Amino acid sequence: MHRLLRTFTALAALTALGLTAGCSSGSGSEAGPARTKGAGAASGPSTAAAKAPPNTFWVDPDSPAARQVKEWEAQGRAQDAETLKRISEQPLAVWPAGDDPAPDVRAATAGAEKEGRTAVLVAYNIPHRDCGQHSAGGANNADYYRNWVDTFADTIGSAPAVVILEPDAIPHIVDGCTPAEYHADRYQLLSEAIQRFKRQPKVKVYLDAGNPGWITDADKLSEPLRQAGIARADGFSLNVSNFQSDEVIKKYGRKLSATVGGKHFVMDTSRNGKGPLAGDRQDAWCNPPGRGLGTPPTDRTGDPLVDAVLWIKRPGDSDGPCRGGPAAGQWWPDYALGLARNAKAA
Length: 346
Description:
Helix content: 25-40%
Structural class: alpha/beta
Strand order of the largest sheet: 1-2-3-4-5-6
Number of helices: 10
Order of helices and strands: HHHHEHEHHEHEHEEH
Strand content: 5-15%
Distance between the termini: 31 Å
Number of strands: 6
């Protein structure tokens, strides 16, 4: 999701505006994992769920990580399989793939309901998504997007779910990556999406607000979030697919919350166990080496403003074709294993 800055002049200009990395969000958000084979297996009970840390979130028994564990066990890679369970036994967000979100949403919510848990879903299909970069795409037009959101919400039905709404959509307005002629429509679509999802009785919606390493001045997000309808949402999300530390995220989130009516937030800790990659920040967002899993998902945060710690970016899904990785959103077992080996100490 990330346009790289091309020149020092552009970088200096953005720094003056309180931004870093321009459209290089550092978020690493992606079009979402490809729809998994055998998604219907989600309806069965998950033994992994019992091993998860205290939370109410659903663990997908047929995630790419879970299937990789079984494959490595069959190949005799017992130690690697055991290490990868640090991912497969945790609740991960589901990014519905393709033009029809219903199959992925249905599998996740049905699986979660059977276990009395909550599905974590990512709505990521806004028109002009990712400014034409690795995760480019999205709905062809506003009406198509409205229909897509309506299908997504209808499929959730009365099931409990957390919806992370459009990673990077607001920060890409703030950093100038999304052309000005699209701003009004984007605000309208996000506002409508919040209202549509909130018609479902057990849905919580968090509008994405990027990460502290991208829009460094949180105040610059306040008015865009208000225009996008944050008042009707349950809060905002931070650090989706990024690597900022827990404390940095919380400090930033508290400051941003104070400017948008005290809204709560959720934070993605899926890959922040070692913090961000040091050095050149222009490409630090894309499959950076040496990173590790962060704080496991939980809704018992002990912080009145932090509703949940989540693994929104699915650990092991590529950021894009950089550093030898596959296309954005594709499963990369070697990278997943590295994240698990470098997991943050409990």
